[in-house]
Amino acid sequence: MYPERFSNLPAHAWPRLRALLDVHEGGGPTIHMTIGEPKHAFPAWVMDVISENAGGFNNYPPNDGTPELRAAIAGFVQRRYGVPLDPDRNVMTLNGTREGLYNAVMALCPEAKGGKRPAILMPNPFYQVYMIAALSVDADPIMVPATRENGHLPDFSSVSKDVLNRTTAVYICSPANPQGAVASREYWQELIALAEQYDFKIFADECYSEIYRDSPPVGALQVAHEQGADLNRVVIFHSLSKRSNLPGLRSGFVASGAENMREIQQLRNFAGTPLPQPLQAAAAAVWNDEAHVEENRALYVEKYELADRILGNVPGYASPEAGFFLWLPVENDEAAAVKLWRETGVRVLPGGYLAQDWDGSNPGQGYIRAAMVAPKAETERGIELIRDCLYRS
After folding, report:
1. How far is C-alpha 273 from the geometric centre of its chain's CA atoms?
2. pLDDT by residue for the chain (393 residues), tens digit each?
3. CA separation, residue 134 to residues 83, 123, 159, 207, 238 (Å)
4. Which residues contact 245 (CB under 8 A, 6 or more apart)?
5. Which UniProt keywords apply (predicted)?
6. List of residues 6+ apart from 17 with CB closer than 8 A
7. Which of 18, 66, 216, 238 to pair with 87, CA 20 to 30 A apart?
8. Gap between the Cα atoms of 351 and 346, Å rounded
9. CA dist list (Å): 153 to 63, 122, 233, 389
């Protein structure tokens, strides 16, 4: 016997992609533009910090993060967003943001609201963990379209009052994956006001926050602090994966008001998997350093400019505001991905694999997602092949 709660899940994006493409031969040397795994160099001194603290592998690591790591994270939030946080009451380390995004629902969302089954709202397209988290607590995952018409940011105020009245949490990703859209200060203000009106929490997935063109994206906790809102209304999630090219270090964090953090920490006491102490030492050093982040961001700015130059004349092309994905319009996302692979060797992800059919449509199906994570020359070649294969008659 197995539980039925996950029995209707669609196949995950990566098995679907392999099934779609691997039955065909690639049309050239493989250029991987599917997964958002950064390929820039991480700071060389990270290995020195790990080596210097290697004795910590002999100890069980602290569950909430070492005092040094939590202080470094609080320092980052203060520098970046101007929000003063108590490292002991407002911050907890994570083994990557996905852990936190999943467990926040477990720790913070009630079993019912107003006597009804709870609802959890999320953008469509979306990061798949949002949906599985909602299903895990027997809540209804409600997909809110993020389309070109609404600037690729979901309009949660358009959801019916009946659903909003039973909503316990809203997931929002800014900068958005896959579209690269950035929530403005006004967007956050309106969402916080909606959350206060209908009494739900905002789970702000901000893991792409440090990859942008000119102006740093405004943060959810930043706006809550500016407005004097209860910090328990907002929960933010960050990691070193994109910011510092360290996806394998698995250093993330969650931050919120003290009441939220008490519940999240209590769950992690029973179900958490803390980073080994040498890795926490390395993470603290990386969160404390901004020079390598600026260098990394400059490399992505060069790739934005490449994409604009190569694809600027493509009808419907939208230059990403932030992040490292291209969200490119096509007539048929699966057909475009197959054509591109068979004729050029470039692998991209059909946009429909990142979204769900909802109200008779899938808002991702008219797009492909291409990750600009490889070195500049390889990225340039990949973008040129996409243009020549899909957009030149």
Report:
1. 20
2. 888 888 877 788 999 999 999 999 999 999 999 999 999 999 999 999 999 999 999 999 999 999 999 999 999 999 999 999 999 999 999 999 999 999 999 999 999 999 999 999 999 999 999 999 999 999 999 999 999 999 999 999 999 999 999 999 999 999 999 999 999 999 999 999 999 999 999 999 999 999 999 999 999 999 999 999 999 999 999 999 999 999 999 999 999 999 999 999 999 999 988 999 999 999 999 999 999 999 999 999 999 999 999 999 999 999 999 999 999 999 999 999 999 999 999 999 999 999 999 999 999 999 999 999 999 999 999 999 999 999 986
3. 29, 13, 17, 20, 20
4. 38, 39, 40, 41, 42, 296
5. Aminotransferase, Transferase
6. 34, 337, 347, 349, 350, 353
7. 216
8. 15
9. 35, 10, 20, 29
How buried is residue 332: exposed, middle or buried, by Cβ count under 10 Å (0-12/13-18/19+)?
Answer: middle
Polymer length of the chain: 393
Residue-by-residue DSSP string for 13-34: HHHHHHHHHTTS--SSS-EE-S
Taking the C-alpha atoms of residue 136 and residue 282, their distance in angstroms, rounded to an integer, is: 33
What's this model's pTM, rounded to 2 decimal places? 0.97
What is the per-residue DSSP string for 83-111?
A: ----TTTTEEEEESHHHHHHHHHHHH--S
3-state secondary structure of 9: coil
Unique residue bearing structure tokens 């009441």: 259
Distance CA 322, CA 174 (A): 9
Cβ–Cβ < 8 Å for 203, 211: no
> Tokens at residue 288, please?
């404390």
